[in-house]
Design goal:
By secondary structure, the protein is an all-alpha fold. It is 74% helix and 0% strand. The radius of gyration is 18 Å and the shape is globular.
Length: 180
């Protein structure tokens, strides 16, 4: 099954039969790894957790490659597994006591620029959103995915993706005004 997935993802490779699963996964990682890290970072907020999520996603894909049925494209399935992995990490985070991320501790420079302050404010507002709203917003506005792609990844309708984005933007605008 991994061979079929690999052919869909990297169609330019004519003879994947001679490749090992490790080589196939390396090729898939080279193709999607950076975008996966970006999606995970935008959900989790730290580089370390984003990298952990991507690694965990590849482990899950390896363990369950036989469950991909080809109904959705392999990349859609891959991102669905990643998003669910991010949700798992967020649920685990809620169960453990609050801790300050290392990146925040190590960052001693002041947020003097207005852009930095706005970016930090937006991140705080996004963290307060329900998972699905945050996911639709980050996949559309930050990752540049289409509503069709988001709908497939989250298993919702395209119209629902559009409505969630609209409602989320409206909510963020209201929260932005009150937070100033």
């Amino acid at each position: 099954m991994l061979e079929a997935a690999f052919l869909q993802v990297v169609p330019s490779v004519r003879e994947p039969a001679g490749m090992t699963d490790e080589q196939r996964f390396e090729e898939i990682y080279n193709r999607f790894g950076q975008r996966m890290k970006s999606v995970a970072f935008n959900h989790l907020g730290t580089v370390a957790e984003a990298e952990d999520a991507v690694q965990e996603t590849f482990l899950k894909i390896h363990r369950s490659a036989g469950t991909w049925n080809g109904e959705a494209s392999f990349s859609t399935w891959l991102f669905r597994v990643l998003i669910n992995t991010c949700y798992d990490i967020l649920r685990k985070r809620k169960r453990r006591p609050a801790e300050t991320p290392i990146e925040v501790i190590g960052d001693t420079r002041s947020a003097a620029s207005i852009d930095d302050a706005k970016r930090m404010m937006l991140r705080r507002l996004l963290e307060q959103l329900p998972e699905q709203r945050r996911t639709v917003f980050t996949l559309f506005e930050i990752e540049g995915m289409s509503h069709a792609e988001i709908a497939q990844i989250l298993d919702i309708s395209e119209g629902n993706s559009k409505w969630i984005l609209f409602a989320t933007k409206k909510e963020l605008q209201q929260q932005w005004k009150t937070a100033r």
